[in-house]
Amino acid sequence: MNEQTCVIDDKPWLDARQPPFIRIKNVTKKFGDFIAVNNVSLDIYRSELFCLLGGSGCGKSTLLRMLSGFELPTSGSIEIDGQDMAGLPPHARPTNMMFQSYALFPHMNVEKNIAYGLQRDGLNRQEVKQRVQEILTLVQLQDFAKRKPSQLSGGQRQRVALARSLVKKPKVLLLDEPLAALDKKLREETQFELVNIQESLGVTFIVVTHDQEEAMTLSTRLGVMDAGEIVQIGEPREVYEYPGNRFVADFIGSVNIFDGRVIEEDTNFVIIRSEEAKIDIHVSHGVSCTPSQKVSYAIRPEKIQMCLKKPKNVKNLLKGRVNEIAYMGNLSVYQIELEGGKRVRVTQPNTIRSDEGAITWEDEVYLWWDGAAGVVLTS
C-alpha cells in the first residue's frame, strides 16, 4: 500500500469514491420566524470523531438534536448509513445521545445505570452482564461498579454516562458538551481518554462544543458554525492555519488582524498596505485578489518574532512598546502597542526557567514575521 492510499484510508473525506456515513442535505430548522439552522449540508464518514464548534445560539445543538430525532427539520433530509431518518423517532434511530448533564439515575449504582437501557430492550441477563463488564473495563470503571453516582468524581460520572451511551452499540454517538462540567485539568485528561475509546470501538462520534481547544484536540475534522450556518469544515490544523474568513480566524484561537488594501499583486507575492499599522505587509505567495482590493491579514501570535534590537534584512517589521505581559507557565503573552496605537499580541514559549535579559514592561521592541506566516482574508 503506497503513502497516498494510506492517507485516503485514514481520511476518507479526501476520496471521492467513499460514500458518507451520515449525509445532512439542505437542512433548515425554524422556530416560528427564527431560523436556528439555515440550509446546512454536511457529510460525515464512518468512524470519524467530528466536532461541531461554535458559540452559544449558533445552531450546533439544534443540529445535533435533529440527528437524534428530538427535533425534526423544517426542510431538508438526514441519512445515516444509507437510511433516511425522516419520521423516525429517537428510539428507532441507530444513534444514542450523551447529554451534558449526564442524567444518571441517583438511586442506581454504576452497573445498574449502564445496564438499564439493555434491560429495557429485553436482552437476556447473561448478555447484559457481559456487555456491562466489557464497557466497564473499557472506561476503566470495573472497580466502581457498585458505587452510586454521588460516590463518584465528576470525571467518573462522565465515564459512566459515556459507558451507558455506548453499551447499546449505536452506530453514531452524539455528545452535547460532554466535558463542560469538568475542571480544566480533568477536561484535558478526559479528552485523550475519549479519543482512545472512540478509536477502540470505531463508533462514529459527533461532538458539540463551544471550546476551541477541545474541538482541536478531539476531532478528525470540525465544522465551525455561525448564525445557523457551517462557515468552514476541515481538519483542525487546516482550520487553524488557513481560516476561510475573518470570523473563523477570530473565533479559533488568538489572532492579530490587520485591515488593508492590496497595492501590488503577482503570482508569487502580494503586498498589502495597512494604514492602521503603518506597514506594507509582504505575503510570499499569490492570492486570489485584485489591485486595490480591501482585505484583512491574519497572523497568529506565536508566528511573530520579537526582540529588543532591530533585526537586519527582514520584511514585515514593526516597532512598539510592551504594554502588558501575562505569564502562563509554559508561555508568556505580550501585548505590544505599536507607534500608531494599534495593539498586537505576541506569544513566546518559556523554554528556560529564568531569563535575566527577558523582555519586560515598557520595553521598546521590534516585531517581524516571515512572508508565509499569515493568511490573507478576502471575506
Report on the structure:
The chain has helices at 3-10, 60-68, 110-120, 125-138, 154-166, 184-201, 212-218, 236-241, 246-251; strands at 22-31, 34-44, 49-53, 75-80, 83-84, 95-98, 172-176, 204-209, 221-226, 229-234, 256-265, 270-274, 279-283, 294-299, 305-307, 317-327, 331-338, 343-349, 364-368, 375-377. The strands form four sheets. Strands 6-7-8-3-9-10 form a six-stranded mixed beta sheet, sandwiched between helices. Strands 13-12-11-14-20 form a five-stranded antiparallel beta sheet. Strand 16 (317-327) and strand 17 form a beta hairpin. It is globular. It contains nine helices and 20 strands. By secondary structure, it is an alpha+beta fold. The longest helix has 18 residues, at 184-201. It folds into two domains: 3-94 and 170-247, P-loop containing nucleotide triphosphate hydrolases (Rossmann fold, 3-Layer(aba) Sandwich); 254-377, Nucleic acid-binding proteins (OB fold (Dihydrolipoamide Acetyltransferase, E2P), Beta Barrel), CATH 2.40.50.140.
